[in-house]
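Table S2 (continued). Query chain:
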Amino acid sequence: MIIFPNAKINIGLRILRKRGDGYHDIESVFYPVGLTDMLEILPSHSNLNDKRAKISVSGIAAPATSENLCLKATRLLRDRLDTPEVDIYLHKNIPVESGLGGGSSDAVFTLLALNEMFSYGLKKEVLHQYASEIGSDCPFFIYNRPCLVGGKGDIMEPLDLSLKGYYLLIVFPEASVPTPEAYKMISPSEDGLPLREILQLKPEQWKELVVNRFEEVVFARYPEIGQIKELLYRSGAVYASMSGSGSAVYGIFSGSPPLSEELKNYNIHTEALK
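Corresponding output:
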């Protein structure tokens, strides 16, 4: 089975408070985008008594060790449902530590593929619970539609939000930002307007209102990332933001985004939003 786990962008990100379990309560909107990895999962016949999954990774560097979230997903199903051994081939296009959810998407698409391959018939509610055990933002990819996200990233409320007619440009800096590092730098705050209210406005009105609270601390540590956001606005973006805790920065454009000489110095992804 070949599948294509997609990335997401964060539209706004408020870090509200630290929880007793060490996580943080957040408020954000997750929006699925067309940048994808490629994942092939095959039943293995090498040793029918061996229930361990094996993974090979190509493309952008990503762990091919037990820490890979695809393997974490297979171990979870093996423990719950005695899932047979599989071979996993992962081609990475979504950079790690970019705030685009690539690893989480890979893990959830692995769950979905195994559910189909072995005819488990798991309902979304069960898959949501399994996904939340793998990573705090994994449940989003069970639904894979615009959602208002709360809790530690595991509470989803589907939103009637469409950016169809707009264009997306994602810029990938050389720097990567580990999520734990970003959370250590930030001070939670409930300041600001709820995203539900702001996102009723058009993207042209978001600039001063839709804020990613990680930007202040990440831009101070990694100035290049902040400079990319400024570059996107100079290039005509109606809204620009870092995604998640970084390091990817995206711009939303009302027309096909121009590729300036400065932007051509970076790895980028462009698409018409749906």
